[in-house]
Amino acid sequence: MKISPSLLSADFSNLSRDIEVLEKAGADYLHLDVMDGAFVPNISFGLPVIKSIRKVTNMVFDTHLMIERPENYIESFAEVGSDIITIHYESSIHHDRTLNEIRRLGKKAGISINPSTPVSLLSEILDLVDLVLIMSVNPGFGGQKFIENSIKKVEELDKLRGSRNFEIEVDGGINVEIGKRLLDAGADVLVAGSDIFKAPSIEERVKEYKRLSK
Ligand code: DX5
Ligand code: ZN
User: Fold this and answer.
1) CATH number corresponding to 2-211
2) Which residue out of 28, 130, 171, 188 is catalytically annotated?
3) Which of 20, 106, 148, 211 has the most CB atoms in a 10 Å sphere around its CB?
4) Can you give the three-state secondary structure of 19-50, one letter per residue?
5) 7 pLDDT band (50/70/90 cuts)?
6) Is residue 205 lining ligand 1, measured as CB closer than 6 Å?
7) What is the pTM assigned to this prediction?
């Protein structure tokens, strides 16, 4: 399994310290939640922050774009050091073009769906993605309650996957116990924000996730 801690729950006045702890603990990806106050009702951080933290770590930057018109910013996110660039299915229309562009820039292409968006809508673009991100909360905030229906969506996507090798990532309201159920349903990558940063030991909590097996 892979764990992608969400930086949204970190201490923003001490980002490099928190990132170092996550990297040492063996986290696989660093999940970066970019919010524009339009696609989602919250504003987080953007290009300058990603550019700065790129200097302090070699972790895989798993960039989750919760922004309108993501196609206008792909090159910029590639330039500041994102490794995986995930756009939302609901945020734009020409996904074929945008996903191809992400790959052309040498980055991994991801598509994300909100809780109300069915998995079946992805059928024509599954060959163009390296990752599918299933949102298990309505995007915008950390610390929300996991939506149970997401387990069924992971199972459905895992069946649709066939011999393709994109990763299935799940994001929102996850703890270790829910994480285990998601892995059993077919997920490969778990995002966790508040569960990791509110734990008595960030390092120990990351290791608990890493001990879960698929
Ligand atoms: C929600 C974000 C998530 C969030 C997860 O809009 O996309 O990545 O930070 O936080 P938790 O794990 O606290 O739900
Ligand atoms: Zn996210």
Assistant:
1) 3.20.20.70
2) 171
3) 20
4) HHHHHHHCCCEEEEEEEECCCCCCECCCHHHH
5) very high
6) no
7) 0.98
